[in-house]
Design brief:
The protein is α/β, with parallel strands linked by helices. The protein has a single domain (about 5-130), classed as Rossmann fold (3-Layer(aba) Sandwich). Helix content is about 35%, strand content about 20%. It has five helices and five strands. It has a five-stranded parallel beta sheet with strand order 3-2-1-4-5, with helices on both faces. Strand 1 (about 5-10), helix 1 (about 15-25) and strand 2 (about 30-35) form a beta-alpha-beta unit. The mean pLDDT is about 90.
Length: about 130
């Protein structure tokens, strides 16, 4: 079984999120998604989510392409996750190109193009402007 892993916050789930999950799943048989916890988002990314971790993880877990959801609690866990879960392919959006090349010793690293015309930042800006 070929296992794929990807990471993300997945706040305000949108079509771009769905597309990266669909394309990631197409690279293997089993898709593991690490959803960033609220603590990790705040302490490391200075990002406050609209929805709490439990809600974001439940939404991602309900997507037909996703086989398992785990919490992302720190940047360093990626190597451990790959080894612990027997991952063959690590996937991130192309906005991260090159940042995770150090994982190539452990598995294949794939950077997928972002879905044109949509981003979480754009969605949040639109919502804020309309209220």
């Amino acid at each position: 079984m070929k296992k794929v892993i990807t990471y993300g916050t997945f706040d305000l789930f949108h079509f771009g999120h769905l597309e990266i999950l669909r394309r990631a799943k197409a690279l293997g048989d089993y898709l593991l998604v690490a959803v960033s916890t609220d603590e990790f988002n705040w302490s490391e990314k200075r990002k406050k989510c609209v929805y709490p971790y439990a809600h974001r993880a439940a939404i991602v877990g309900a997507i037909q392409y996703v086989d398992e959801v785990i919490p992302e609690t720190c940047w360093e866990q990626k190597v451990t996750d790959i080894r612990t879960h027997g991952v063959h392919v690590f996937v991130m959006g192309s906005d991260w190109t090159g940042k995770f090349d150090f994982l190539k010793d452990a598995c294949d690293v794939v950077y997928l193009p972002r879905t044109e015309g949509i981003s979480s930042t754009e969605v949040k800006s639109t919502v804020k402007a309309n209220h």
